[in-house]
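Appendix B.2, paired examples.
Example (i):
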Amino acid sequence: MDDDLNSKLLPLRERIDAIDAQLIALLNQRAAVALEVGEVKKHFNAPVFRPEREMQVIQRLQDMSDGPLADDHISSIWREIMAASRALEQTIRAAYLGPVGTYSEQAMFEYFGHSIEGLPCPSIDEVFRSVEADAAEFGVVPVENSAEGAVSRTLDLLLQSSLTIGGELALPIHHNLLTASGNLDGVTRVCAHPQALAQCQRWLTQNAPHLERQAVSSNAEAARMAVKDPTIAAIAGDRAATHYGLGNVFSHIQDDPHNRTRFVMIGKQPTGPSGYDQTSLIVSVANEPGAMFKLLEPLAKHGVSMTRFESRPARVGTWEYYFYIDLEGHRDDVWVAAALTELGQKAAFLKILGSYPRAR
């Protein structure tokens, strides 16, 4: 049987080897052209990373493809190809909520590709500070979860910081219960980021009600604690389990099986239109009758769709709020620009956080 199998596989493997030889030659040709592009960008002081351009490349290739590769496969492959080309031009660093093994790190790699240098930070505040101080070109921060809503600290820092949003990624979140032993013998506490504890509270109540729940700075920090202390269980993802060598006691313990977290990429460079964009802004209105109608009227007038509306206390007065809004379209689109101009005339405060390619 082995002889028959090998006789059938051999010619197919030879064809794959021949195709691989063509692919590596073409990839090196592509990389050589990318280096030429880098020289032109350097001459004009243009940014190495252009998220709108990379999205257009991936979309074009997906439209060209007749299969059997799915769109997700094409996106994953070409993101790594483009990341490798970027690395030939310049090493790019991205700050993220650490330590190693967090969902923020996973989001960084899925968005930028693995040919990027990560800078783990102990807090979301430190991610912003690192980018503002040029310790990293970009930052990756969580902004909202499908089950628990907005990440308040990120919203507050977006208001205070001069950094802008240049991209977004919606990451499926699958939580696991991890311990050093791979079981719950002797375990008395479960540690995780507050959002993770909230996302798993029903499962924990039903399946591990005896465990004390302790909030820590990140799920990866909880994993690091669990390695050193056999009385601690951590809630974290597969990346943390692998990195810290923890045993998986239970998988997918999140209460919502479709749990997702939206991450945004922050930096100093503006992002051009990609054709499938989103604009984020913060506004406030005067405390007077009809104020909210005046705020939303320019959007309806110019046909701009609102995809997100979140309020946060302004902390400067009694019952005053900032409103975080996501709009379809790029600030350079004529209809969006017209709506923003009119909105700026009617709002007491307006800050555009950025226009960037929408997550598909």
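Example (ii):
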Amino acid sequence: MKLTLFIGLSVLVLGSIAYGAFKSVKFSPQKNEITVTKTFVNPIENDDSLGDRIVSYGMEFLGTPYVAAGCSKDGFDCSGFVYFVYNHFKIQVPRSSSQFENFGKEIPISDVKKGDILLFLSPTRNVIGHLGIVTNPKGMESDFIHSTSGREMKVVITSLKKPGYTRRFVKAIRVL
């Protein structure tokens, strides 16, 4: 009974360490006790692979049609796509592209990582009107996935070095 309880507790604690809930666990065979140092660490902040998972999930929707005000697998607008992808990971972001102007932490384009968000001016007005998720971070040559109302009218991957996007680029933000 004690061995079964010990093994079960060990699995629980070790799993929690992997998830970030405990800093350390020590077992003292002389005292037959476990000492646990609890330090909860938000796994979103420490998970380097989260950006990869966000990008991979977003890629599942390549080719999904652009739909004005769309926010479902049936079709997306640009902010609906970002909202849908991030929401899948329980990360709250604004639903409207204009609301991203003061959201997240602005970062230099040279420091972008997968999962960061790029903000662009509207093609017709001097306001934030488009956004996408970084898929391949390379500074001003980064690739990003987004739902475009342009010629393609679907979820695509585009390079920031494309002149129409370079000219309208405003900033990169990190919300992870």
